[in-house]
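Fold it.
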Amino acid sequence: MDMTLTPEETRQRAIDLSAETMGELIAFWGFKASMGRIWTLLYLSSRPLPADEIATRTQLSAGAVSMALAELQQWGIAERAVLPGERKRHYRAETDVWGVIRRIVRERELRLVGRSVQRFTEAVQLLEAHLQQHPDDSDSAFMLQRLRGLLSLAQIGYQLVESFAEVGLFTLEPIRGALNKAKDAR
């Protein structure tokens, strides 16, 4: 560690390290790394920041900052802050991190898992209808059994994601229940 850094340089270095890390984490989940970098800067700032300062401190272009701020606001992760006497737009981070995560899970992951439940249900219904007409089709019966397992797993996943989105907690009870049913079915 360089002891010749000024307090401002030290703080900026800590922000840079943290912002880069959050950018990597958020990119892993399918968001733009710039969103993570900007949110981290805002989160670690003791005051709302204008877009030009955000661009300077994150080393992002004005256009990239503008687009990322718009997305952050859409997700409810950042908001405009009105400062008396200031003409520039200032921004601050949403600080309820668990609330942000729950909101994203609710709006993104829950929709994805819900779609998988819907499509597995359609596939099960398709095979069930087929087997009513062709009860001796052993390949379709085998597929139906496997698809019912996938549907059950998707339904459990939906319950877990929904539970997390609502209360911020995962419970393993649906998994335990499914495992017990599978064990009893043997």
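The chain has a mean pLDDT of 87.
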